[in-house]
Amino acid sequence: MIREINNRGLACPQPVINTKKALEEMEQGTVVSVVDNRVALENVTRFAENAGCKVSVEEKNGEFYITITKGEGTGPAVAVPGKCETGPVVYLITSNTFGNGAEDLGETLMVSFFNSLLEKPAPRVIMLVNSGVRLAVQQSRVLEQITKLARRGTEVLSCGTCLDYYKLKDQLAVGRVTNMLEILENLTAGGTVITL
User: Which of 60, 131, 175, 192 is surrounded by the fewest CB atoms within 10 Å?
Assistant: First the structure.
């Protein structure tokens, strides 16, 4: 079975996510992931090789056809996300941008982060503090993704003091308002805490 995935014009991590989903849907076979930029080429190729698949690449008119073979003799199967083995995961997000530097780039990276997070087991809690509270309000670029996580059981908590500071309390669109005591309890409750 050969399946072609059109990833032209897509920014990472979407080509990797699309390729991963296609591989997870088959026990063995071949996926041809078509990308039109070198970053996607490198990321999809690295993902497939790390998954134990055979990979070959052909370039045609500035597009890359990544042929990925999964199954007999190609190594371990692609891992399907399951329960986190290290305990409940809590994300403390302190900004509406990912990383330091250009704000528009940071916003784009945050969208990419939440799109990727949807491909993993849902975290137990996402706590939003400082400008991170902007992610859970109306007009947020990641509101759809955070809402999907909430539907999957993730508790979304936004700092009330921060919402007041940014005058956003009446615009909270997902999750609920929290306080520093509850934030501290979640940080010290055990499990894995990841801070962005």
Answer: 60
